[in-house]
Amino acid sequence: MLISKRQLSRAALALALGAACAATSALPALAADNPRVKFATSEGDFVIEVYPDKAPQTAANFLQYVKDKFYDGTIFHRTIRNFMIQGGGYDKNYAEKPTRPPIRHEGREALAKGLHNTVGSVAMARTNDPDSAAAQFFINVVDNTRLDPVIIPPGDPVAKFEYMGRTYENVPRQNLLGNPQLYGYTVFGKVVSGMDTVEKIRNAPTGAGGPFPTDVPQKTVTIQSARLLP
Hints:
By secondary structure, the chain is of the alpha+beta class. The chain contains five helices and twelve strands. A hairpin with a 2-residue loop joins strand 7 (158-163) and strand 8.
């Protein structure tokens, strides 16, 4: 039985497609993309990529606030030009929004997986209690690795420990575990687009506002919406 040139071409194409499909099926499945959240503000937009694999409880907490539309109408109430911008807790009248219970500090786990307080990184704000983070977050506008958690060496007492340029020897472990400064701040995401908006907020003139004596943008910076991107 004779085969025409057109039939040969179709057969070759079918073989090529079959081989391509087989090769594709042999490839490992691609990892799921990290969640991304778009913030629309009165000064422009920016997008945060969140890392649930590195700070799972912190990421889940933040994303739940996003899903609940908690951040809509809140403001950036604290901006320090050579440090960070902080928001997500107060409305335009400086009334603090009620939150869910605070979450456990995950800073050391996130640090061990490569997250640092560097330019563009996003971390949870907290009080002096390491386990007090709720909804407020901040964006580092410079490298603030001094905010990273401090890894405590093994042993009790700890034979040698360095912190803030000083060396300590034979320190009881409990003394170190009880020092809130050593916990640092948990990084859980990074600004992946819209850093020009962050820069604009960072450079806004600041002064007193509401209950805060300093560092409040004199032109209110409002988070109009925060939404998960598809």
